[in-house]
């Protein structure tokens, strides 16, 4: 095994063992047999053609708000693909083709009136799909291609063509509701991919883990009464006017199928690892999914303009390792990551690269030049008020009370 094939992770806060590019455990022990660690990847230059226009941050410009480039512009995604390509990682991945989801497939989740409105506007000059969700000429087709690409990843994983998959798509989707766009999300990419797995592929239990810094309100709302789908959202508490409190647990037949972990501003690696160890993984184990789909947001980065969290690419790598290990344990390794947020054109690509490296078990040797800014910060440790939030989330989800913080008393180390 070459150095480039070495896996990035070893053992996470969950106690499960990571595997490397040969399928062996990183500690040298044999992993359960499987058909290899072939990892799928989808990207299409069409995603760059979604035009969000001028804005002030993510707000419409006007009045005192001088027009500037919209935060949800192509740069972070384009540069992420470029880094994956020049690092050599792209050559080690299985390219999955993109495709446009059909109108009938989009109707799995969205209302016909909403789809017709976006379709008509896309033939002209675009407009507002909903709250802070600008779109332009041709955006309907681009957003439908994002959905179809996630569906193709789901199919490739379920068909055994690849073991895992990453969809580097744009626009994002986890805020979109049935009849409106929200927060730059036009169509509900992950929710539609999950519904495709349920309706077209016959699965009966699918779990969604949303690690974007903003609450996955759209995905949660779509499945709020559906016991077949577990939605877990780990996000910055009370951010961008979104809720996602611990008492939002589903309704009707879906009571208990929504889990929320709202973390306080300033949370770092320790808080996130504790949340994954004591809430995310136990909730997944209880649910026993047949497939895990991840809303992979990288806007909890210390360098992201839309959050006040302090994660670095090393933390994102570890979080993906936890989810990969959970998938290996619970659903024969079947996991799909769909790109959501991450708005630093400079720093986001290094976090995306780390995530795809961990997903594939391939190390490129590329070092993140931004990590030294934050690596030694004492706030990367799990702090008492953050631990309290993790315990509250676990108890609200009817999970066992965490006995102690991961890695020792409030140490925040795995």
Termini gap? 26 Å
> What is the C-alpha radius of gyration, as a whole number of Å?
20 Å
* Strand ordering within the main sheet: 4-1-7-13-12-9-10-11
CATH architecture annotation name: 3-Layer(aba) Sandwich
Question: Can you characterise this structure?
Answer:
The two termini are 26 Å apart. β12 (291-296), α8 (313-330) and β13 (335-339) form a beta-alpha-beta unit. α1 packs across α9 (348-360), α7 (269-287) packs parallel to α8 and α8 (313-330) runs parallel beside α9. The model is unreliable at 1-36 and 407-414 (pLDDT under 50). The protein has a single domain (33-45, 71-396), classed as 3-Layer(aba) Sandwich (Arginase, Chain A), CATH 3.40.800. An eight-stranded parallel β-sheet has the order 4-1-7-13-12-9-10-11, sandwiched between helices. A three-stranded mixed β-sheet has the order 6-5-8. A two-stranded antiparallel ribbon has the order 2-3. The protein has 414 residues and is α/β, with parallel strands linked by helices. Helices cover 31% and strands 13% of the residues.
């Amino acid at each position: 095994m070459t150095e480039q094939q070495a896996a990035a992770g070893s053992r996470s806060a969950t106690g499960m063992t990571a595997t490397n590019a040969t399928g062996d455990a990183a500690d040298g022990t044999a992993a359960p047999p499987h058909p290899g660690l072939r990892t799928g990847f989808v990207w299409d230059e069409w995603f760059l053609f979604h035009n969000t226009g001028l804005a002030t941050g993510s707000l419409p410009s006007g009045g005192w708000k001088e027009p500037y480039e919209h935060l949800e512009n192509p740069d972070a995604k384009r540069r992420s693909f470029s880094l994956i390509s020049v690092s050599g990682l792209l050559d080690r991945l299985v390219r999955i083709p993109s495709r446009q989801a059909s109108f009938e497939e989009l109707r799995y989740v969205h209302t016909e009136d909403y789809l017709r409105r976006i379709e008509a506007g896309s033939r002209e000059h675009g407009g507002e799909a909903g709250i802070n969700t600008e779109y332009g000429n041709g955006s309907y087709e681009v957003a439908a291609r994002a959905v179809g690409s996630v569906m193709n990843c789901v199919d490739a994983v379920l068909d055994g063509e690849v073991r895992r998959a990453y969809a580097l798509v744009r626009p994002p989707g986890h805020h979109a509701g049935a009849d409106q766009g929200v927060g730059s999300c036009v169509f509900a990419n992950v929710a539609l991919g999950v519904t495709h797995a349920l309706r077209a592929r016959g699965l009966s239990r699918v779990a969604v883990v949303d690690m974007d810094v903003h609450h996955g309100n759209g995905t949660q709302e779509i499945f709020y009464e559906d016991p077949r789908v577990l939605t877990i959202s780990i996000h910055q508490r009370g951010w961008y006017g979104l809720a996602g409190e611990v008492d939002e647990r589903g309704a009707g037949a879906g009571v208990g199928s929504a889990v929320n972990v709202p973390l306080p501003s300033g949370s770092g690696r320790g808080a996130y690892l504790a949340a994954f160890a004591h809430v995310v993984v136990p909730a997944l184990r209880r649910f026993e999914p047949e497939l895990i789909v991840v809303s992979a947001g990288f806007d909890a980065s210390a360098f992201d303009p839309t959050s006040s969290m302090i994660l670095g690419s090393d933390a994102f790598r570890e979080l993906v390792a936890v989810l990969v290990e959970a998938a290996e344990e619970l659903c024969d390794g079947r996991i799909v990551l769909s790109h959501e947020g991450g708005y630093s054109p400079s720093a986001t690509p290094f976090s995306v690269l780390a995530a795809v490296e961990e997903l594939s078990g391939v190390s490129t040797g590329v070092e993140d030049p931004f990590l030294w800014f934050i690596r030694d910060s004492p706030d990367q440790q799990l702090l008492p008020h953050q631990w309290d939030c993790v315990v509250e989330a676990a108890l609200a989800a009817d999970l066992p009370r965490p006995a102690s913080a991961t890695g020792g008393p409030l140490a925040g180390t795995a």
